[in-house]
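INTERNAL AUDIT FORM
Audit reference: QA-55
Scope: verify that the stored structure record matches its stored sequence.
Auditor: D.O.
Record contents follow.
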Amino acid sequence: MRLIGLTGGIGSGKSTVSSALGRLGAVVVDADAIVKELQRSGTPVFDAMVERFGAEIVGVDGELNRPAVAAIVFNDKDALTDLGKIVHPPTQMEIFRRVEEQRGTGNVVILDVPLLVESGWKDLAGTIVVDLDHETAIDRLVRFRDFDATDARQRITNQVSREDRLAAADFVIDNTGSPEDLEVQIQRAWEWIHRLHV
């Protein structure tokens, strides 16, 4: 198994890169997707979140209203800390479980984790960082994902710095260009992964 960390700030295009690497043959362990699974209605994580933040975080469909959660936690550091205490431990356990399933295989495993740098994950063959300047990221979040610019800026402020993320990179994908430019860099990253000594 080649375990490759993949990270990037919000709006960087990390999910696009992750999906493309999956199409090239990698097994993707996607932390955001795992969080969404663990937060489904009726799960212990969902129940703990409702108990902490109130019924207003539940949508009309009975599932989590993510914008309502974001409105609370990204304006209140204590609330954000409490959310982390509820969500991070079970998410980490499930990530570990999925990675362990791949041990002994010859697969490339992409560990797609927004908080990879903060988590201090060991045992990686290499780390890919998808990089984008903050203003371009905010512009893309507003144009393509219906974010409010102030909200987008606040979320970026709450993340590890761009400099710290780049310092942890073994391979950087610069996503300031066109989708075609990005595809070329993803292919180069895939070739780089296969040159790594494990």
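Auditor finding: record pair retrieved intact. Residues 1-26+107-198 form a domain with the Rossmann fold fold (CATH 3.40.50.300).
Action required: none
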